[in-house]
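Quick start: what a row looks like.
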Amino acid sequence: MKKRWISLFVENDIGVLAKISGLFSGKSYNLESLTVGTTEDPTISRMTIGLNSDDITYEQIKKQLNRLVEVIKVIDFTNASTHMKEILFVKIKNCTKEDKAEIFQIANVFKSSVTDYGTDSILLECVQTETGNDDIIKLLTGQFKQIEIVRGGSVAIESISKTDR
């Protein structure tokens, strides 16, 4: 099993997301990450899908996606040089003054920002790679007891210079 990434250009129509996610669930493939947004052309959406799969199953998935009428293009990002980020929000509750100082330092080290602040809570926004966000979650959950986490899926685009960023 290997982490895989697919980018799809699809028709921006009602039901396309359901049809594509239904293809995965119908075959018992588990999506680990799924993001969708319109492109520079409002009639086309771009999906970034992350999953764990073996080689044979992954090839099947790509072939099945290519057969769907609504799919314009399938791009395999697994071994491509890409720029890839995901958004993460972490709300830390019941903070002391010392906790807040520590959280500000952690945010600085992880190039995250404090986007909301209350008398006993702080909200961090992190736009990192999946691994970078995993690291900050591990650190924060190890130090603080009351944490709320919301993660968006990764988005990716091929590199211009052909090196990973």
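That is the whole record. The first strand starts at residue 2 and ends at 11. Helices lie at 16-26, 55-67, 97-109, 130-143.
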